[in-house]
Design brief:
Enzyme class: ligase
Helix content: 25-40%
Distance between the termini: 53 Å
Oligomer: single chain
Catalytic activity: tRNA(Gln) + L-glutamine + ATP = L-glutaminyl-tRNA(Gln) + AMP + diphosphate
Organism: Sesamum indicum
Strand content: 15-25%
Strand order of the largest sheet: 12-25-26-27-23-24-13
Keywords: Aminoacyl-tRNA synthetase, ATP-binding, Ligase, Nucleotide-binding, Protein biosynthesis
Shape: flat
Number of helices: 28
Largest sheet: 7 strands, mixed
GO molecular function: ATP binding; glutamine-tRNA ligase activity
Structural class: alpha/beta
Radius of gyration: 36 Å
Mean pLDDT: 88
């Protein structure tokens, strides 16, 4: 069966069609490889009625139309094409002027007089006119041309001529400039062909260099970097065409709102921006949803508009109240406030009535194919046997479906779209299916439920959404989105897709996350190793650092990029460095007995913040210092080296906020290898100035161990950067992603830490008190380490 491009071109394949209009073979093949340009160029060729071929100059201009025509003015494209075919517009300069004119006109009525004047239609530039313009330019620039000879920038000369004669034939202009150069300069010499020698840049004096660095202003950020939402149009601009839908059997649909429909919409909204965040309540939100929230809620907030939190609850078997409650709570935690909370199920009656209207208009039919048959027929681009059944018959059957008179799986309502389209999402998508399952929100009123493809766009329109924003995997559904709204005569929101947020060393598909949780590879949806927002929060990540991360990566359409995990960690550290109080915890304690100290306890001041003012008591906390302290096992070695700053026999280190100590003896176990205890002497006068500084914890009273805490060290969940592309992705799980230290020692001031409190454990990283903590046992989760690799490479 012929596909769209073949059937529309009288059986010609796109490549043959493009070669007929004069494209060179390489350009034609590259065009065929791009489905969007192929569709555009095919449509332009048909609008020009040149399927049998045309002059190469005309073909090249038509190709430019297909690739560069302003998307907001597509209604005027057929007019421009006629001017090209009739040779009223015959140069690239005229074509560029035409693009500028129609872009400014958009979908308004085209002024023929203004258009022709702007494009130089009817203006003939003679050979004499061009020669006179070139003579003038050469006279004005003669000295420079003589000095630079054949190194003269011909492009600049060309530009000067174009200013004087914008509609001149560029080929003739080039010929005359070359001729004039030869007349003035004569034959090329060997010197003309030599490459110019590069002059070495003189290094300015150091003082001047420093001055220049200080005075040079940093490059100004782009408007999009300052305001990522500047790329979106205002609601009153939603009359412009920005999407074309190609059909195999009817004219191109140029999606746009009529003035009447747009005016009605603007009256309801007051011209405000209305967006929606539409999660399906069948799982926990992950960091990708944080980007969606930033886009949806952020645009509404930036424009002083409104954002719905809309639960896309069309599948009664998947929705759970647990997920609904979680989503609402997480949206609030992320700092967003919905204008209104709605459910797709709120509109079930309106959706049903619109489905009936769709049948009446001949755009939907009741089908009895099985799921496997539908799949097979769609793959073969074959119509369902019931596609052309009478409208009245489909109306009666759809009513029978609603009243529960047809068995589940025995009938669906399908939209009558375009089974020969190049877009798989136009192959008569299902609008309604039968499910004898009560709905968590709507109860048992319905036994037929709308599909996502039917409900999503329709509810967007019913809620007067101005900007329908989603990720790029939905881009191919844009045709179906606008087809349905056009078929029903409904208001059409502005649709725009952005790239998914893909982060290294994790997975974010609901199916894979669900498997990790249900098969107990992780400890629930809020496991701190997951990129779920609940997991990130439990890990100690703040909502503001997530939003800063999302804002930093921008709202792009590059869908193949993978954001490194350390970029997120950079933003987490940036915030926690300012907000997390410092404290000391020893993960793997090694006992140190200070032999020249008595049994008394000293209370020393330790800083909560690095730059704590000395006169602010609230910026300090008390740490006991006694005869017995504990350091990290990794901070002691039997053999010293130049690059080692820890403790070793005969070597001194400084205990942070306390005193220098020097190792005088090492107590070994029976195996003569295991280190049981260190003996040391301290320097009470602090005369020693060691390079190494260690964190430590002391006994708070003689013979009583320090506060014991549990510390969970979390790391990347997967070893590979992109585990999702591995066949055995579960085999890539990092066995060291969670290490539990059960007998860490902490300073006494941590005893009263509450769940959710965040700290920097000096020299170790940032940690948060976990919900598993109890009055007798504190549990800390590591949020991130102190090491930051991302800032070295750029932010």
């Amino acid at each position: 069966m012929a596909g769209k491009n073949e059937s529309e071109s009288g059986g010609d394949k796109p490549l043959d069609l493009f070669l007929k209009i004069g494209l060179d073979e390489r350009t034609a093949k590259n065009t065929v490889a791009n489905s969007k340009v192929t569709a555009n160029l095919t449509a332009v060729i048909h609008e020009a009625a040149v399927t049998d071929g045309c002059d190469r100059t005309v073909g090249n201009l038509l190709y430019t139309v297909a690739t560069k025509f302003p998307a907001n003015a597509l209604v005027h494209r057929p007019t421009l094409v006629k001017y090209i075919v009739s040779s009223k517009i015959k140069t690239p300069a005229q074509l560029e002027a035409a693009f500028s004119f129609v872009a400014a006109t958009a979908s308004d009525n085209l002024s023929v007089v203004g258009f022709e004047a702007a494009c130089g239609v009817g203006i003939e530039v003679s050979l004499e006119d061009i020669e006179n313009a070139v003579d003038e330019i050469f006279e004005e620039n003669k000295a420079i041309i003589v000095e630079q000879r054949y190194r003269t920038n011909v492009g600049e000369l060309f530009g000067y001529v174009r200013k004087k004669q914008p509609w001149a034939d560029p080929k003739i202009v080039k010929q005359i400039i070359d001729k004039k150069l030869y007349e003035l300069l004569g034959e090329r010499t060997a010197a003309d062909n030599e490459k110019p020698t590069k002059k070495k840049k003189e290094k300015p004096a150091k003082t001047e260099d420093k001055f220049i660095i200080e005075e040079t202003a940093p490059p100004k950020p782009s408007e999009e970097e300052i305001n990522p939402f500047s790329i979106f149009p205002s609601p009153d601009e939603n009359f412009k065409v920005h999407t074309e839908i190609y059909f195999s059997d009817r004219p191109v649909l140029r999606a746009c709102n009529s003035k009447e429909i747009l005016d009605k919409h603007l009256k309801v909204t007051g011209g405000k921006v209305f967006t929606r965040f539409p999660p399906e309540p069948n799982g926990y939100l992950h960091i990708g949803h944080a980007k969606a929230m930033f886009v949806d809620f952020g645009l509404a907030k930036e424009r002083g508009g409104c954002c719905y939190l809309r639960y896309d609850d069309t599948n009664p078997e998947a929705e759970k109240k647990e997920y609904i409650d979680h989503i609402e709570e997480i949206v609030g935690w992320m700092g967003w406030e919905p204008f209104k909370i709605t459910y797709t199920s709120n509109y079930f009656q309106e959706l049903y009535e619109l489905a009936v209207e769709l049948i009446r208009r001949g755009h939907a039919y009741v089908d009895h194919q099985t799921p496997d048959e539908i799949k097979e027929y769609r793959e073969k681009k074959m119509n369902s046997p019931w596609r052309d059944r009478p409208i009245e018959e489909s109306l009666k059957l759809f009513d029978d479906m609603k009243r529960g008179m047809i068995e589940e799986g025995k009938a669906t309502l399908r939209m009558k779209q375009d089974m020969q389209s190049d877009n798989f999402n136009m192959y008569d998508l299902i609008a309604y299916r039968i499910k004898f399952t009560p709905h968590p929100h709507a109860g048992d009123k319905w036994c037929i439920y709308p599909s996502y493809d039917y409900a999503h766009c329709t509810v967007d329109s019913l809620e007067n959404v101005t900007h329908s924003l989603c990720t790029l995997e939905f881009e191919t559904r844009r045709a179906s989105y606008y087809w349905l709204l056009d078929a029903l005569g409904l208001y059409q929101p502005y649709v725009w897709e952005y790239s998914r947020l893909n982060i290294t060393n994790t997975v974010m598909s609901k199916r894979k996350l669900n498997r990790l949780v249900t098969e107990k590879w992780v400890d629930g949806w809020d496991d701190p190793r997951l990129m779920t927002l609940a997991g990130l929060r439990r890990r100690g990540v703040t909502a503001s650092s997530i939003n800063a991360f999302v804002r930093g990566i921008g709202i792009t359409r590059s869908d193949c990029s993978m954001i490194r995990l350390d970029r997120l960690e950079y933003h987490i550290r940036e915030e926690l460095n300012k907000t997390a109080a410092r404290t000391m915890v020893v993960l793997n304690p090694l006992k140190v007995v200070i032999t020249n100290m008595d049994a008394s306890i000293m209370d020393l001041d330790a800083k909560k913040w690095p730059d704590a003012p000395a006169d602010d008591a609230s910026s300090f906390y008390k740490v006991p210092f006694s005869k017995v302290v504990y350091i990290e096992q990794s901070d002691f070695r039997m053999k010293d080296s130049k690059d080692y700053y820890g403790l070793a026999p005969g070597k001194s280190v400084l205990l942070r906020y306390a005193f220098p100590i020097k190792c005088t003896e090492v107590i070994l176990g029976a195996d003569n290898e295991t280190i049981l205890e260190i003996r040391a002497e301290y320097d009470p006068l602090k005369k020693t100035k060691p390079k190494g500084v260690l964190h430590w914890v002391s006994e708070s009273s003689p013979g009583v161990n320090p506060l014991k805490v549990e510390v969970r060290l979390f790391d990347k969940l997967f070893i590979s950067e992109n585990p999702a592309e591995l066949d055995n992705w579960l085999g890539d799980l990092n066995p060291q992603s969670k290490v539990v230290v059960t007998d860490a020692y902490a300073v006494p001031s941590l005893r009263n830490a509450a769940i959710g409190d965040r700290f920097q454990f000096e020299r170790l990283g940032y940690f948060v008190v976990d919900k598993d903590s109890s009055p007798g046992k504190l549990v800390f989760n590591r949020t991130v380490t102190l090491r930051d690799s991302y800032s070295k490479g750029g932010k």
